[in-house]
Amino acid sequence: MKPIYMSCSHRIFHCSCTPSFLLKPIHSKIKKMEHKFDSEAVIQEFESLTKDAKRVQLETLKKILKENGEAEYLKKWNLNGKFDPQTYSSCVPLVTHKDLEPYIQKIADGASYPVLTGKPITTITLSSGTTQGKPKFVPFNDELTETTMQIYRTSFAFRNREFPIGNGKALSFIFGSKQFTTKGGLLAGTATTNVYRSAQFKKTMQAMQTPSCSPDEVIFAPDFHQSLYCHLLCGLIFREEIQVISSTFAHSLVHSFRTFELVWSELCSDIRTGVLSAKITVPSIRTAMAKVLAPNPDLADEIQKKCLGLTDWTGLIPEMFPNCKYIYAIMTGSMEPYLKKLRVYAGGVRLLSADYGSSEGWIGANVNPDLPPEMTSFTVLPNIGYFEFLPLTESNEVDSVGPEPIGLTDVQLDEEYEVVVTNVAGLYRYRLGDVVKVIGFHNSTPKLQFVCRRNLMLTINIDKNTEKDLQLSVETAAKLLADEKLEVLDFTSHVDLTTDPAHYVIFWEVSGEASDAVLKECCNCLDKSFVDAGYVSSRKVNAIGRLELRVLRKGTFQKILDHYVGLGSALSQFKTPRCVGPSNRKVLQILCNNVVKSYVSNTFG
Ligand code: AMP
């Protein structure tokens, strides 16, 4: 396989109008980076790409269309050898996953001709599927891995300039999902699994001086509970060396440290005796852990003392990992509700929010790591795909016909758009379903803030409440629990159309027993906190029924997580679905079967 740094830069610096003086120094610098990470070379590459974003986008589109011109899908749209954006957007339609599903299925079934891409697709990615309730198949190839590494390197270069780390290890809560073979013999797994398994990932992590402290057998264990336990154990064994604590999404960090609260004394006992807990039954993990675990009573004593000395686990991370420079994960969008808890564990350790991407490919890097997670934006890398932006219309239907999408460099400041992706792995004008806001520009490429999933919406009639509205409402109501020293561990919602009028249902899992009076107050507060005019007016005239708060048995969200992992999703990629539709029957059933108390609002009389 080609060295990744060469191939990424190749695309940019080999175009005819690039002055040759630009090629030499960057290529030689980049070659060196394979061994040692050179932040300045990466930043220099990023600067030149973003200064020339329009041309880079044209080149990227041309390259994608040229390389895949023989594919059945592209031939169908008669581009007649034209690669310009106007021809492309007038010939090729905007699509959603549903439109491409038959093509992806043909690939998964082993089609022997080019379906979506010129070169055969050999791997299928399973998106986390938290939105629709079941994982989606998405084509994956080596070029997507390369773009992932480019994003990792770019944000790391900026991060490292601001917050340098020395040689050390990362406690990375990463988990491979189950992989399986499709009917046509293609390997299928989550995007994170496909990336973690790639040789490029290891090389890049090595160059960035942050290899995971856990052996591969722990990352790719068939049982994520065992995998998580061993990640924690490895973290403690190498506690002095840990420079960074990370996961893909912040949810796994919170989940991991909540687990730590429950298993810390067992971890100490393993360290004291050098004998791995009997609950770890996977032979490959036991063999791998035997190489890192040795009796160390002093370390066990120290950890025990520190755990006993903590109040409500505040500052757990700096106590356990004294050299940890920062905590790194995606903390935006549906991850924001976990920030509060994460800050408790983090004590004073800085939280840095990671990049923006999806199973369908990466979009932008966080190049301003000094900003707090709530202010994170993502600078689009113009060579990792061809991007279009669909202006938002009043209609919230994903398949509504609205204005035409515009190009990457044509977006307007402060406007919101849905992202449309054309990627290097066979997706053409693919509506990602994410809403972003342009909050500025880096050279000529936009900086985007994640707003919400477009179709994640609580709506009954004229009301429209997004994931963000739900989050704000939950945050406000959850403050009422603080007096009882309780917190909302996780939450989701549902529109109950079986009642007349229909109404919103909010599900909460709470950390302990709250009194009926407080929960009743929380329920009223939730109802009041949806301030959308359509909702308020509908509630006043009873066109929307009283909001219902249903309190769940402890462990319900764990059951939901287990359900998704059972479907092939990985803990690394898990996002709690914030709105569960009627078609997501299994999750709805888990929720409804675990309700212990329910309250009905009387906010509007
Ligand atoms: P997946 O289906 O597992 O590939 O998840 C991809 C989705 O996760 C994206 O389409 C976004 O909705 C969400 N996502 C990814 N990165 C971020 C981010 N940095 N901030 C907010 N949401 C994100």
TrEMBL record:
InterPro entries per UniProt: GH3, GH3_C, GH3_M
Annotated GH3 C-terminal domain residues: 468-581
Pfam families: GH3, GH3_C, GH3_M
Domain GH3 middle, chain residue ranges per copy: 378-453
Keyword Ligase annotated: yes
UniProt similarity note: Belongs to the IAA-amido conjugating enzyme family.
PANTHER family: GH3 DOMAIN-CONTAINING PROTEIN, GH3 FAMILY PROTEIN
Protein known as: GH3 family protein
Organism: Helianthus annuus
Chain's gene name: JAR1
